[in-house]
Amino acid sequence: MNWDEPTELQGGTEQRDRLVGSDADGEDTAVEAALRPKDLGEFVGQERVREQLDLVLRAARARGATADHVLLSGAPGLGKTTLSMIIAAEMGAPIRITSGPAIQHAGDLAAILSSLQEGEVLFLDEIHRMSRPAEEMLYMAMEDFRVDVIVGKGPGATAIPLELPPFTLVGATTRAGLLPPPLRDRFGFTGHMEFYAPGELERVIHRSAELLDVHIEAEGAAEIAGRSRGTPRIANRLLRRVRDYAQVKADGVITRETAAQALDVYEVDGRGLDRLDRAVLTVLLKLFGGGPVGLSTLAVAVGEERETVEEVAEPFLVREGLLARTPRGRIATPAAWTHLGLTPPHQQAGGTGQQGLFGA
Ligand SMILES: Nc1ncnc2c1ncn2[C@@H]1O[C@H](COP(=O)(O)OP(=O)(O)OP(=O)(O)O)[C@@H](O)[C@H]1O
Prior knowledge:
Layout: H1 26-35, H2 47-63, E1 70-73, H3 80-90, E2 95-99, H4 106-114, E3 121-125, H5 132-144, E4 146-151, E5 158-163, E6 168-173, H6 181-184, E7 189-192, H7 198-211, H8 218-226, H9 232-249, H10 256-265, H11 275-287, H12 295-302, H13 306-319, E8 323-326, E9 329-332, H14 334-339, H15 355-358
Parallel strand pairs: 1-6, 1-7, 2-3, 3-6
Antiparallel strand pairs: 4-5, 8-9
The structure holds adenosine-5'-triphosphate.
EC number: 3.6.4.-
Keywords: ATP-binding, Cytoplasm, DNA damage, DNA recombination, DNA repair, DNA-binding, Helicase, Hydrolase, Nucleotide-binding
Pfam families: AAA_lid_4, RuvB_N, WHD_RuvB
């Protein structure tokens, strides 16, 4: 990808054609179905959510009841869709998948709800992006398994109550804080998905490699895991690119060297930063001495839109402790200098730089 060309933001926060973007691209969607764990036992990591969910589902099964509504929050690609499918499988129930943006009118939701079977799991991705009328209809549906369908308009409009079969709503959101409290309160269980530790990602990679029939050494998996930004979707995507490289340039076996060489070719560095991330840091360090610098200035210097820098590059740089957002602008942390192999100005002869900011 050429970062000099204007880029279009998709899905509001991520570019889908970025190798380290955490939203699903077309190829991911095709391959992900084959790589999804089918039950809680196969689901790697997220110990707390898994354990709590296991109890909720076992108890519901023992009572012969439909499971309580479940809210899953966390960044894209951490396994929310996968978990919703596992919930349906563990309950022996069918699953219907839709998303907040797809439900713009209350009528859209009424149509879905009224066609659910008893016990069915309704997965509502990006639940925070549903329209307000649909959201209000959902309150009653979740609590009383009933909706009021409005027929007609104006003074002659009448509400016809419609009974619904008991169902389990699994809502997924990247922004739990954006959910109105009345909606949040109607979930019986909320699971917060964390980023994965490198060891957990290694297990995801080994499992996927086996399913894709790829030979990978432990150190190769560790190399990919370290560059996967704590996200299984990215780990699986990098694995596929490294597999291509190993097939063409080596004997098909993924070793630490092959993985590192391949990911260098794809410009994903040892810590998972890609070209855009590094461009932001390089400009911040080399042109502005580590900051503080305003977002707009930084974006112009990188040759990118403000939103691209703010929503695509910054969240990961902040999470990695390489960049900080301050009221005075963006500043690089000492770790950023080290990562790019540069010397902070206060360590250079006669430099001043960030001494006051980081006290080092
Ligand atoms: N815990 C896990 N163990 C193994 N594989 C996982 C795990 N979590 C996610 N994956 C894999 O990562 C990919 C993305 O997962 P999934 O689609 O469930 O993420 P998501 O959180 O729903 O993302 P989005 O919010 O973008 O829809 C899938 O291929 C899935 O197999």
